């Protein structure tokens, strides 16, 4: 019996192929990745934070918005985690729960302004990025805080548990459950056409708020992964994730216009984005040149998406 790919899977095949090529190139450039368990975990931990941020950005893009505050929100979540976490299972759990709830609250705040004040998401999130920057520096003006060693060991592979992979798998499973639920259908419908969604009985406001809250929680997950890597809270660590999260999501096929895109595409986009930086690093490229390449790729991807959008409009 011949296996038939679904339409969505067929569209993703080129992305899978490119991702596989980047895996091979990374292994050739850095064969030590497979040398031992810790090296493998460290390799995966390079990609995990951006993957979580790409998931967060995708939630907003699917509603037809865009989040320009993700960078500062990541920084804020790391400082919250580093100032609320304590020793022992209860202390660690408390810090993690507070951080996740804080992420959801941040998303709800911005989502409420977007939803009820009818202000475009790009303006709201840009404005709140400055608010979160001030809050972040108030909580922790410089890298520091307290993170138990057992927490960083969990992510580094020294505990013989693939911590970053487990955390990301849980996040993906949560999204999968939501996507297959009425809420997931509603999020896509709201992004595609809010008026039609409303006419079909979907609570547009509630769906949009849920998407923003979920996005905030994914940003908090990214902060957990980052702190597990660096071992402290850092008020300056987030900004690079801002444009990279957009690039990863768009590269993975998520549309700026809303209602179109898959989370797995965003994850692969994040992997390709980070892999490209690794390749440029091993090639000896300067950090400034790396930024130029990232910017050109983002422009190229947006350009291709724009052409596809206008062609589709002409056909209709």
What's the SSE blueprint?
Elements: H1 7-29, H2 37-62, H3 70-84, H4 88-116, H5 121-139, H6 149-156, H7 163-179, H8 182-192, H9 194-199, H10 204-230, H11 240-251, H12 263-282, H13 287-315
Helix pairs in contact: 1-12, 2-7, 2-10, 2-11, 2-12, 3-4, 3-5, 3-10, 3-11, 4-5, 4-10, 6-10, 7-8, 7-10, 8-10, 11-12, 11-13
Structural commentary:
The protein is 77% helix and 0% strand. It is an all-alpha fold and 316 residues long. It is globular, with a radius of gyration of 19 Å. The protein starts with 6 loop residues before the first helix and ends with a helix. Keywords: Cell membrane, Membrane, Transmembrane, Transmembrane helix.
Keywords:
316 residues, 13 helices, 0% strand, mainly alpha
Provide a brief overview of the structure.
The protein has helices spanning 7-29, 37-62, 70-84, 88-116, 121-139, 149-156, 163-179, 182-192, 194-199, 204-230, 240-251, 263-282, 287-315. With 316 residues, the chain is mostly helical.
How much of the sequence lies in strands comes to: under 5%
Structural class: mainly alpha
Largest sheet: none
User: What's the overall geometry?
Assistant: globular
Give the % helix: over 70%
Estimate the mean pLDDT confidence: 87
Low-confidence stretches: none
Task: For the record, give the distance between the C-alpha atoms at the N and C termini, rounded to a whole number.
Answer: 37 Å
How many DSSP H or I helices? 13
Number of strands: 0
Question: What's the Cα radius of gyration?
Answer: 19 Å
What order do the helices and strands follow?
Answer: HHHHHHHHHHHHH
Keywords: Cell membrane, Membrane, Transmembrane, Transmembrane helix
Subcellular location: Cell membrane
Transmembrane segments: 12-29, 41-70, 90-114, 121-140, 160-178, 209-230, 242-260
Protein name: ABC transporter permease
